Amino acid sequence: MAAPKVAVVGAGVIGLSTALCIAETCPSCSVMVLSDQFSPNTTSDVAAGMLIPHTYPGTPIHVQKQWFKETFTYLFAISNSAEASEAGIHLVSGWQVFKNTPKEELPFWSDVVLGFRPMSEAELQKFPQHRFGQAFTTLKCDCPPYLLWLEKRLKATGVQMYTRKVADLWELHSEYNIVVNCTGIGAHQLVGDEKLFPVRGQVLKVHAPWVKNFIRDGDGLTYIYPGIHRVTLGGTREKESWSLSPDPGATKGIFDRCCSLEPSLRGAQDIKVKVGLRPSRQCVRLQREVLSQGGVKLPVVHNYGHGAGGFSVHRGTAKEAARLVGECIAALQGSSSRAKL
Ligand code: FAD
Asked: If you measure from the C-alpha of residue 221 to the centroid of ligand 1, how many angstroms do you get, rounded to a whole number?
């Protein structure tokens, strides 16, 4: 069989990292990224990019932990290299604070992040409305720079990228041997996945360079995540809302909640509002499927539905998707050698 042609549909953090893993694990493949939008116009560009996992109720915890660990290890190495500032990857320390002690004092990812420990009484004095907290160091991706860095890596490995809206995966069958579906919330329409729903998120990106520590309320709704150039203030979670228009009431609510956690933010400047739709599902859809029409078959690998945690697990799920592409190639090679006999 000639070099397999693989189309990765989608150019958010999931599509770009999946294309990179496929190119790395299968150098003989010809990989293309097809997407109707690229950075800075994807959901991934809106994200805060913090490595604090979201929990997927439909995925075993040990699998989620593995994805997180692989992602953390990969980004930690970048943060510790000369590439760190161009890739927008940096370590950040801070606190997750709770009004009441949570049932689970040790989250499953506590031994993956660095230096996880309960907060001291002295630290808790900074948060008079909170009674319990966890201190740790994690990683953050500055999203547009990280996506541009991934695109640069892809070009360097010979992966081509084209702007194209795919109306039906089947339309790719005559040009590609394997299709990888990384379309995020776009999969709702593209493959009619009714289990996939948007959770609208609004954030503010502000200039407040004196804020160096992250602060996250344990309810996950209010957070302050300092990046290399801007601080992300969040947020909102609106299930089933498809609106991409900023809501001025939500902007005020986010700003007031963040200022009550970090009063110095009252001096923040150049406030920009961003909205994105988290591609949410009970579990990430990471699986092989073979589409078939009139005896013609098209192997597909799905990798979408990362909800609120796509950055936290992207490398782990990309590696698994690349492994599934390897299985598709083995199956295609098996059937082409059988056909020759
Ligand atoms: P997208 O980034 O949406 O990419 C999908 C791609 O597919 C796009 O390029 C799109 O153009 C393309 N596409 C779709 N349909 C088609 C089609 N039919 N044809 C061709 N192309 C198509 N996660 C974290 O881990 N940490 C965080 O701190 C964090 N903060 C967040 C804050 C907010 C406000 C939001 C909204 C999300 C946050 N997330 C965070 C979640 C994270 O952003 C997502 O999980 C992640 O971006 C999903 O990536 P994706 O590549 O699947 O989707």
From this structure: 19
